[in-house]
Automatic annotation (TrEMBL):
<feature type="region of interest" description="Disordered">
    <location>
        <begin position="1"/>
        <end position="41"/>
    </location>
</feature>
<feature type="compositionally biased region" description="Basic and acidic residues">
    <location>
        <begin position="1"/>
        <end position="18"/>
    </location>
</feature>
<feature type="compositionally biased region" description="Polar residues">
    <location>
        <begin position="19"/>
        <end position="41"/>
    </location>
</feature>
<protein>
    <submittedName>
        <fullName>Uncharacterized protein</fullName>
    </submittedName>
</protein>
Amino acid sequence: MSLHKIERSSKAHRESQQRKINLLTNPKSTGEQPQTMGGDH
């Protein structure tokens, strides 16, 4: 049972990581500047 829980949370973690990578590589897709690069706000 706990194994299934861990698997699900790791999947969510992986998806959030993928979203971050997508933001960094293609910020225009969301219309936002990546946090790491845009220190000029």
